[in-house]
Structures are given as structure tokens and as C-alpha cells.
Fold this protein.
Amino acid sequence: MDSQPKLNAREIAARVRDEIAAGTFGPGDRLPGARAYAKKLGVALMTVQNAYAQLQEEGLVEGRTGSGTYVRDPAPGEQAPREAAQRLTQLQAEVARVSTELAGLVERVKQLEAVVGPAKEEPGA
């Protein structure tokens, strides 16, 4: 029995985004077919389709009816998919870092409130 949890669309999109950022897939390259990729990952076809749709919303890929999903070829002056994917990955890491710090601050506020009691609202606030 497979003990590995199945990937969700967000995780698959992150995996493909990382491959674009690393240069595994470049402008004009075709991504793996959704059916074959879903089978390889052991997930539903819809999960891969949702991941590809997320990447399309991010402007990294484009779907071509009857042909597949391809890494976008940037227009002149437009950021290349590789750089965009790298930037998205950096932003996600920064959001995760800030979220962790915020959770730590929330915990500290709870600890302080336990010691001094909850803050009272100012009149007229």
C-alpha cells in the first residue's frame, strides 16, 4: 500500500513551477500530457488539469487546444517564464516566512494577555 500522500493541484503546480524556474522546461516546451502525468503521479486527471490551469493563470504556460500545455514564449519586453517562476517561488518563500513570524507574534500576544489580561478597547475606538 502506498504510504505517500497524494499531491494536490497546488503542489503539482509548485513542482512544475520549480522545473520552469530551474530551466527544465523553457519557452515553447510542451509540458507532460495531463493524462500521462496524472497516471505517473497517481492522481486524478482533474488534479493535473487544475495545476496546469493555475500555472496558466500565473502567466507561465498556455494551453493549445488539441495540442497540449506549453511554457509561454514571452513577448518582447515581457518577463520570461523562467524568471517569473523564480520570482513566484521567492515570493512564496517570503510569504511562508512572514506567516511563521506572524504566528509567533500571535502566540506571544496570547502569552502576554495570559499574564496581564486582555487589552481593553479605548472609548470611541
User: Anything to note?
Assistant: The radius of gyration is 21 Å.
